[in-house]
């Protein structure tokens, strides 16, 4: 095993383990999205755009069980994309996977638009609301009319007691995952200073402004929520 693969494996292990502590329903989330895509896409060949594909979990969750789906993943982090590539190679999926390093603007002009898209655990890393809107608008412009889109993001009103209670729930996941109270208190401080939380209503408004309809929240665990909608 080369040193690079060993390092990749360590990153994969740490990322995957922590994602499942932070979001105990992480695997169920991917299963739910797969069900909805399947119901929408039917049996035909379909192209799926994955925004924030680093980590490779969309590809590993949906690739082996949906042999007619072709994936294009885009991510500005080379390290995260390496994880995605590593997993796709291990599962022999690379013939159906294209990985693009960079922002979503790096997507090549395509002859045809995508049949479905996801943007999972990405939006809260973008501070500026106009930048969030721009990302959602670009995703919409790359989708066929009526195509399903799934957004999953940290969500909540910073000034609300509800977010405070949700953070306490989130802390309990990490306590059970082996962290102590001082560590989880620090983690809460860190995410409040680094993640961009928006209230649910504002996220839904951004989706509508970007050109999506039938916006439906289908998922919440701790501080993360998910919406399914369709390109107009
Ligand atoms: C927490 S990971 C989520 C990865 C994957 N979607 C999952 O659920 O396992 C967030 C990813 O979003 C990527 N990211 C950050 N800003 C982005 C942007 N503006 N456009 C696309 N991806 C972005 C990061 O590089 C990182 O790989």
Automatic annotation (TrEMBL):
GO terms for biological process: methylation. Keywords: Methyltransferase, Transferase. The keyword Nucleus does not apply. GO terms for molecular function: methyltransferase activity. Pfam families: Methyltransf_12 (PF08242). SUPFAM superfamilies: S-adenosyl-L-methionine-dependent methyltransferases. InterPro entries: Methyltransf_12, SAM-dependent_MTases_sf. Residues 49-147 form the Methyltransferase type domain. Its EC number is 2.1.1.-. This is tRNA (Cmo5U34)-methyltransferase.
